[in-house]
Known about the structure:
The complex is a heterodimer. Chain A has helices spanning 6-9, 12-15, 17-59, 62-67, 83-114, 117-132, 135-153, 162-186, 190-198, 203-214, 216-232, 235-240, 258-267, 275-309; strands spanning 71-72, 79-80. By secondary structure, chain A is mostly helical. A two-stranded antiparallel sheet of chain A has the order 1-2. In chain A, helix 5 (83-114) packs parallel to helix 8 and helix 6 (117-132) runs antiparallel to helix 8 (162-186). In chain B, strands 2-1-3-12-4 form a 5-stranded mixed beta sheet. A 5-stranded mixed beta sheet of chain B has the order 8-7-9-5-10. In chain B, helix 2 packs across helix 11 and helix 11 (268-288) packs antiparallel against helix 12. The longest helix of chain B has 21 residues, at 268-288. The termini of chain B are far apart. Classes of the chains: A mainly alpha, B alpha/beta. At the A-B interface, strand 1 of A face helix 3, strand 8 and helix 8 of B.
Amino acid sequence: MTSPDRSLAADPGLTKKASRSLRETAIQGALFLCALVSVVTTVGVIVVLASESWTFFREIPVHEFLFGTRWTPLLEPRSFGVLPLVAGTLWIVLIAAIVAVPLGLGSAIYMSEYATPQARSILKPLLEILAGIPTVVYGYFALTFVTPLLKSLIPATQIFNAASAGIVVGIMILPMVASLCDDAMRSVPNSLREAAYALGATPMEVSTRIVVPAALSGVLASFILAASRAIGETMAVTLAAGATPKLTGNPLESIQTMTAYIVQLSLGDAPAGTIEYRTLFAVGALLFVITLGMNILGQRILRRFREVYS
Amino acid sequence: MMNLKRHLLAAAAILAIGAGSAAADRALKGKVAIDGSSTVFPISEAVAEEFLSVQPKIRVTIGVSGTGGGFKKFMVGETDINDASRPIKSKEAVKAAAARIEYIELPVAYDGITIVVNPANDWVDHLTVEELHQIWMPGSKVEKWADVRAGWPDRKIKLYGPGTDSGTFDYFTEAINGDSQACRADFTASEDDNVLVQGVVGDKDALGFFGFAYYVENAGTLKAVPIDDEMGQDGPVLPSMASISGGAYTPLSRPIFIYVNARAAERPDVESFVNFYIESAPKLVGEVGYVVLPKEIYELVMTRFERRITGSVYETGAHGSLAELLSIQ
C-alpha cells in the first residue's frame, strides 16, 4: 500500500475547491456592491436634481431661466433669469485662469525641463501642500488679506469682489494645473528633446517649441479640468465674492456665483416646496450639467493625448 | 428593612419638594440653545455672559442665522429661543402651528434702524422717507447721488444692507417700500453687520443701514443720517436713545423680540435664563447700545412670560404701541 501522492493531497486548492470558490464569489460580490454604491449615488443625485428641476421648469419656462438677466428669487418682484449667477461664476473662472494658467504652466515647464531632481523633489511636495489647504481658509485669506491689498492698489475695490475670490481660486487650482501639465510634459519622449538639443536649440526653445506643443492636449486638458474645479468652488467665493447677483463688467464689485447662491438659499429660510426652494435644484442642475460637460471634455482630450505616446 | 426603605423614600420626597421650590437659588445644569437675529444678538450675548456668573453650569449657545434662518430652526424645535428683530410672520406662525410648536413672544428692547454714510460724505444732511424709497425700491433707477437730490455729486451710490434672511432687512423694506422683501437687487448684502460697517467705512460714496447698536459701537467712524418722515412737524430726526424710545424717530423704530418655545420654558434652565433676561434687560440693553423699554412694559413682559401666554400680539395684523398691544393679554 503506497501512501497517496503528497504533493497532490497536500494541495488545499484541490481538496477544498468548493469552499474556496464560494469565498471568492462572496468577496467578488461584496466588492461589486462597493462599486455599485457609487453608481447608485450618482443615479440618485441625477434623479433628484432632474425631478425637482422638472417641477421648477413647469412654472418657469426654460428659456426665461437660461436667458433672463435678473435673478431675484427672494425679493419682490420675483425674477428667475440665471445669467447673473452664470456671469458671476464666469468672472471667477476667468480670473482664476489668468492666475493659474501662466503660473501653473510656468511651474510645470520649470519642473520638467529645468529643475534638478533635487529641486523637483522639493517643489512637487510643496505644490501638493498648496492643494491641501482647506478652501474655507482660502476664502478667509481672500477676505482679510487679498481684498485690503487690492483696495490699497485700486481704491474702487469693494469689500466683496470677484477679483479677490478669483485670485485665491486661481492659487487653489494652480497645483492641479502644474501637476497635470508636468505629467503631460514628462510623457513626451526624450528623443524629441535630444534631437532638438542636437540641432543647437536652447532649453527655452526646446520647452516652448518642442515639448509644450507635443504635450498640448494634456496641457489643454489640465486647463479644462482646473476650470471645472473653479466652477464648482463654493467656500472661497461664498466668503469673498459677495451675494449680489448682477451682470457687470467690473470684477472689483460684489457679485454672486451659482455655488454661493446655493449656500445662501440652503442656510436661509425659504420654506420647502416653494418656488424659491426649487431654484436650489434648478441652479444645482445647471451647475451639474456645466461641470459634467467640462469634465467629459477634459477626459476626452486627456485620453486622446495618452493614446499618442503609448 | 421596610422601615429603612420607607424612611429613604420619605427623605427623597422631601428633598425633591425642597429642590423644586428653591429652583431659582440652587445651581442648575442644562443647555439653552438660542439662534436668530444678528440685531438682537448683542443683547442676548450680554445677558448670557452675565448669566454665566449666576448659573455657571447652564451653557447658553447663541447662533446668528438671521431672524428668518433662526425661525426655520425654531420651527423644528432645534432651538429653545429665537432672537427676532421683527414680529413672527403669519406664514411662519402657520408653520409653527403645523409643527405644534407654541411660542411666547417677549419684546426686550427698541431698536432704530440707522441709515449711515461715510464720515467724508458732507453733502447728505438728511434724507426723507420718500428719497429712501426712491433709492431702495425694486427696479430703482437711482444710480448716482445726483439722482436723489439736485446738487448732490454725480457719483455712483454704493449700497450696503443686510441680506434677505435678516429681520432688519424685512422691517426696513416693509417700512420704506411697503412690502417686506421688496427691494432693488444690486446692493452689497451681508448677514454680518460688521461687514456692512467695514464696507461703509471704506467707501466715500457708501450708504448702508443696520441696527442702532452697530452704529453706536462704530460712532466714531460712521455718520448717521437724520430721517424726515414728512409727517408731523419734527423735521429730520437723528436716531438716539431719546428719539427712538420717545417715538420721534419714525418709521424706522421698532421693538425687537425673543421668542421662547413654550415647551422649553417648562425646563428649569430655560425658565431661569428667560427670567434673568427680562430682569436684567433694563440694565444690559442700554449698555449694549439699544433703547430700553419703559419699566411698565418690562413688567407686562414678565407677566406674559409667567403666565406663559403664547401667540403673537401682531397676529391679527394689530398695530399700536407695545403698551397697548401687551395690555390686551
